Amino acid sequence: MIYKIDNLEDLPRTAQLFLEEFGHNKIFAFDGEMGVGKTTFISALLTAMGIKELEGSPTYSIVNVYESAMFGKINHFDMYRIKNDAEAFDAGIEEMLYSGGVCLIEWPEKVINLLPNNTIWVYIRKLDNDSRMITVEQ
Questions:
Q1: How many angstroms separate the first and last alpha carbons of the chain?
Q2: DSSP state of 23
């Protein structure tokens, strides 16, 4: 599945379409270069999931945990600062990945060995005209 986002006004609709198609899944890995909009798209997803107060990027806390009336527990991870699997274990990622809650993971390549086979990969790429292309692979 491919989504194109031309501007920020496209985010709420794209997030809703994404959830309609993939919202029954639990583990999502968001791949993209620094500044491409991973956190921005995840924030739109969280809003579409019913989260009213967003905590922003969990760059320093590693994970932000939310509770959604529609989706249950949601874990938003930012693995950018993780150096190895041991640090990820210490942060509790394995427990959260297998808890049954939704996991939204930025910088998943840092913990690729820990991700379950049913992880949905979401690739975000910047296009020449500053729009974004989101490609989803199951």
A1: 9
A2: T
Residue with tokens 């791949």: 31
CATH number of the structural domain 2-137: 3.40.50.300
Q: State pTM to two decimals.
A: 0.91
Single-letter amino acid code for the residue at 94: E
Asked if the model's pLDDT at residue 56 lies above 80, the reply is no
d(CA 11, CA 4): 10
- CB-CB neighbours of 90 under 10 Å: 11
The whole-angstrom separation of Cα 70 and Cα 97 is 19
Burial of 97 (0-12, 13-18, 19+ CB in 10 A): buried
Domain spans of the chain? 2-137
